[in-house]
Amino acid sequence: MSFQVRDPEPGQGFLRPDVATLKETDLDYKAPDYVLDLMSDCWNECPEQRPDFTQIRNRLKKLKQGKKANIMDQMIEMMDKYTNDLEELVAARTRLLYEEKQKTEDLLHRMLPPSVARQLTNGISVEPETYEMVTIYFSDIVGFTHMCSESTPLQVVAFLNSLYSVFDQVIQDYDVYKVETIGMSHSTGQLPSVIAMTGLLFFQGMLTWWCLGCQNEQICMRGTLLPWP
Fold first, then answer.
1. Residue 94 and residue 172 in one domain
2. Pairing, β 221-228 against β 134-141
3. Do 90 and 39 share a domain, yes or no?
4. 109 vs 56, which has greater pLDDT?
5. What are the DSSP calls for 47-102, one per residue?
6. Residue 27 pLDDT greater than 70, yes or no
7. Coil, strand or helix: which one is 31?
8. Domain boundary among 17, 44, 66
9. At 50, phi and psi to the nearest 5?
10. Which of 164-167's residues contact partners 24+ apart within 8 Å by CB, and which partners?
11. Residues 6+ apart with CB under 8 A from 206
12. Angle 138-141-144 (CA atoms, 0-180°, nearest 5)?
């Protein structure tokens, strides 16, 4: 709800003190310009354009220059500083909490289908779904166990990270779901043509990979396509 002063009658203005008299006074003290400007701003007919108490206090800080603050002013200043620091701390912690929550949700979406991840995030129990037709693609790396036995752990981790980054990009482009197991990757989808194209792109991506510790032996991958029913 907002209120607006009615238009005055012709020849009659709003009641406002004459601030000019505060400059042309015979007293030792004369009001500075920033005080008079603040008074005029507080008379603004639009409430949204009037300064609030925090702005008023900040604009009148010049009055305290060269004066010793009393204990009450010091307490108020300390409380204001503490309030501002507390608000910044709460905002920073809230931002960190949101970032950690986002990381958790991203990890959940990588491990589970999007629909299941959304239900778990919202605290909803996941009901099993049934599909009339589904195509499963099985793939594994030939000699993966032997290759790992002749390589260092860091080499295996770097190799799998690079390789699965290529696979994940293909899976994301074709909107299929991947189930990861040790030494084997299962990709599932509803359309046989989509899964077949995914498998072909997997093989195409393997053409540039070589066995760890042996640049003369190219990595081979087996693949099986199983439509159901």
1. no
2. antiparallel
3. no
4. 56
5. GGGS--HHHHHHHTGGGGTTSPPPHHHHHHHHHHHHHHHHHHHHHHHHHHHHHHHH
6. no
7. coil
8. 66
9. -80, 145
10. 166/205, 167/202, 167/205
11. 219, 220, 221
12. 135
Number of residues in the chain: 229
**Helix, strand, or coil (residue 113):** coil
- Measured at the alpha carbon of residue 121, what is the angle toward residues 115 and 127, in degrees to the nearest 5? 50
The residue segments making up the domain with residue 200 are: 134-228
User: Using CA atoms, how far apart are residues 184 and 144, in angstroms rounded to an integer?
Assistant: 9
C-alpha pair distances (Å), 114 with each of 70, 109, 174: 62, 6, 14
Regarding whether 176 and 142 lie in a shared domain, the answer is yes
The pLDDT tens digits for 161-217 are: 888 888 888 887 887 777 765 555 555 555 677 778 888 888 787 777 665 555 566
Q: How many domains does the chain fold into?
A: 3
pTM (whole model) above 0.85: no
Separation of alpha carbons 157 and 141, rounded Å: 15
Q: In what order do the strands lie in the sheet with 184-189?
A: 177-181, 184-189, 134-141, 221-228
Q: Let me know whether 25 and 2 are in one domain.
A: yes
How many Å from the N-terminal Cα to the C-terminal Cα in the chain?
A: 66
Return the pLDDT at 144. Answer: 81
Are 157 and 202 in the same domain?
Answer: yes
Neighbours of 115 (CB within 10 A): 10
Alpha helices in the chain (DSSP H): 20-23, 33-42, 53-59, 71-111, 114-121, 144-149, 153-174, 192-206
